Amino acid sequence: MAEQAAGWYNDPYGRFQQRHWDGTAWTEHVATNGVQQVDPMGASTVVPFATPASAFRSPAGDARTAHGFATSADLSDPNAQAPLPQPPAEGNLVTRFLDGMGDDARLRPRPSLRTALAGIGGVMVAAGLLIAIVGENASRGKLAGVSLVLLLAALVLRLLVKIPEVQAAAVGMAVVAIPTFAGAATISDGSGGALTYLLGAALFLAAWALKGFRGRTLLLGLGLLTMVGVFSTLISDVSQDKCETYIEDNDFDRYFEECQSYVSDGSAGNLFLPNSITDNLGDQGIVYLVSAAVLLAATWWLDRRGYHGTGTGTVVAGLISAVAGAALLADEFGDTGGPIMVVVVGVLVCLVGAHGARRSTTWWGALLASIGAVAFVAVQWEPQSVSSTGGVAIVTGAVLIVAPLIGAPLRRALAQRADDGDGDPPTGAFDPPVA
Fold first, then answer.
1. Structural contact between residues 350 and 358, judged by C-beta atoms closer than 8 angstroms
2. CA proximity to 26, closest of 48, 44, 52
3. Which of 221, 325, 328, 424 has its CA 20 to 30 A from that of 31?
4. Whole-angstrom distance between the N-terminal and C-terminal Cα of the chain?
5. 24-31: which pairs have CB atoms within 8 A and are 24 or more residues apart?
6. Is the Cα dihedral 94, 99, 101, 103 positive or negative?
7. Which contacts qualify for 363-367: CB closer than 8 Å, 24 or more apart?
């Protein structure tokens, strides 16, 4: 690393705006907005938990301060008036909206046994009230009325009662009331279709965005999952309507060609199921996987910008969509392609989890990839005995151990290549400035 000339640079310890570099080491001489003083902590690299009010924090994304250099008219003059740091860009509509949520958007929900139990209790109370009030003679009017009252009661509890356990119970009540109201308002003659999912998704997302339930990641995750259900149901409805049209027109050739019959295992006789159950599974699987890709990409974007709380809702919805899509598409890809696809989906989920330091997501992705790997080895091996089954486990386990060992040097080499292309930046926060 080339030596840097003595002068004033951004304080690498974050306690002040500038610190003097004497050509060989950082000194205790510091300056903030042109006012020079001596750091009471000297040149210690210890960063206190409470940063002095005069400390300077570089705005994110400012290329001029990315490597620890202060922005000033003359770096060699400690008394020169340094310009005030520019405020961060206002961002787009999404980031401004998330910033308005405060800590709920940036911080992950802190796990608590008491609030978890209270939330489940709220679900049980709401379900019990629905059953007790509606009774055996359930009607759409009763279900809609009771669920709406429950939702309003939960909202009042959230607004007026600040006890965490009561607020958690209110969220549980909303989780029951919202889908019940959506179903009662849209389902007629036993079928509701995409409209039911659409209304449910709108209510969940509105509750997450508006005052009262604002920022509850559980409601965000349920709303996003319900939106995935909207698209899946639309595909199912289109295919089923097409098959019914073939029957009405006595076009049995096209019916049997495009709406293949499903034969049960014999326990319940032969049944003709709609395309949404047989051939349409592939299309629905694609919907789930595409939705998972969008949700996981959104999680990556949110984590990269520090919105870890909101990302918790998107990553859960993405994980569930990925698992559902992989399961629906496994048969479509055959004995070999199906397990490979499951491995790929699992690795992608694992990468998103590792990027956002999400332990559960990383482990779930690793588990999904491992299941796909076991299935792939088993299909190729076709074990016929207990011993050969053990061999499948041994081979798969060895692959899972060796693969990361091979991947680590490759990743380091790629990272080193990227670093070489970007120059030679400091290797640590307290390293000398770069020439």
1. no
2. 44
3. 424
4. 8
5. 24/432, 25/432, 26/430, 26/432, 29/78, 31/78, 31/79, 31/82
6. positive
7. 364/319, 365/319
